[in-house]
């Protein structure tokens, strides 16, 4: 459930309820209610929580087991953010997407040096 995921992520990152509450602009007791599944965050708050823990809202809502956000699974956002609208990745195979992921990883590692 959502509350359990929030609690697990928060504890894994060693973030107190108070600190999380401050980051998303709610009362600490609200975090407690989220974690006890007595209350649910609105959509904007859910997005903030996902951003803090670098997970997708789908992961928080149990729509996927995949924890990490994967920009390659969001082709419309990529295309919209680029001037060249030919960057639509929606028709690529999973193998092609994996090639692109590996290229990005390699470039990131190269640029860290």
Provide a short characterization of the protein structure.
It contains seven helices and no strands. It is mainly α. It starts with a helix and ends with a helix.
Distance N to C terminus:
41 Å
Order of helices and strands: HHHHHHH
Q: What structural category characterises the helix and strand content?
A: mainly alpha
| Mean model confidence by pLDDT | 81
Q: Given the C-alpha coordinates, what overall shape results?
A: elongated
Structure, explained:
- By secondary structure, the protein is mainly α.
- The protein has seven helices and no strands.
- It has helices spanning 2-12, 17-24, 28-35, 43-52, 57-60, 75-81, 94-112.
- Helix 2 crosses helix 3 (28-35).
- The chain is elongated.
- 12% of the residues are buried.
- The model has no long low-confidence stretch (mean pLDDT 81).
Features:
elongated, 113 residues, mainly alpha, single chain
Question: What does the secondary structure layout of this molecule look like, with pairings?
Answer:
Elements: H1 2-12, H2 17-24, H3 28-35, H4 43-52, H5 57-60, H6 75-81, H7 94-112
Helix pairs in contact: 2-3
């Amino acid at each position: 459930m959502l509350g359990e995921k929030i609690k697990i992520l928060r504890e894994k990152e060693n973030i107190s309820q108070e600190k999380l509450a401050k980051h998303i602009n709610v009362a600490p007791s609200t975090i407690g209610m989220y974690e006890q599944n007595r209350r649910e965050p609105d959509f904007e708050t859910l997005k903030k929580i996902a951003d803090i823990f670098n997970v997708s809202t789908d992961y928080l809502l149990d729509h996927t087991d995949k924890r990490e956000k994967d920009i390659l699974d969001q082709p419309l956002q990529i295309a919209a953010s680029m001037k060249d609208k030919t960057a639509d990745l929606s028709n690529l195979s999973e193998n092609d997407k994996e090639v692109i992921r590996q290229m990005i990883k390699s470039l990131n590692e190269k640029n860290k040096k």
